[in-house]
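ESCALATION

Customer reports they have been waiting on this structure for their group meeting. Please prioritize. Original submission:
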Amino acid sequence: MSLRERKKLQMRQTLLDIAEELFSTLPFEEVMVDEIAARANISQKTFFNYFPTKAQLLEELLLSWLRQVNLWPSPTENVTDVRSALVPPNLNEIQLWVIAHRHILQMIMRHTDLFASVYYSSQVPAGKNLLFPPEYRQPRMDRVKRAQEQGVIRGDIAPELVCEMYDLLRIDIVQRWLCMPEELACGELYQRTYDEMVAIFFRGLQPDSN
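Update from on-call: job pushed to the front of the queue and completed.
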């Protein structure tokens, strides 16, 4: 990577760090591009070379984090049950990030189409980022296929559909939690709801439920 490319990546991360700080404490309307640019010591014109809109900057906060946490066990690791096929090993880290960034996620839900894009699946408008692009879903799909070969997951449901249903379920859980009143939406409730809902889903994937 050239020096110029490294500097561009550093500036992009600087803008994301500044944006996260501002979006964490202020309403969407009060986060100003000129303030972000000033804190980064760049012009507004330069800012727009990185992010065409403030909404896209907000989206990238979540997308960049997803790229960092998209971790899975070694492909050779055994799949012992439905949960080990679908749930990443760093689930607790993911859930704690969601809880800590509730305010930002609420803004993403209200001011962007990022969450809604999940429901479009392959029909998503051209050029629109998806929360779960194919490269994110592939490791999980490979594990589901292995689980089906081992008789851990029922084999009459396509692996692609299993993964899509799981993604839709967890996004629904997050969005429902984000819509709750602040006095009710504690982190423990979010985690408990996730555990209860996916447990029901997993029972439907077990071979004896066929």
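Sent to customer with the following note: The two ends are 52 Å apart (CA to CA).
Escalation resolved.
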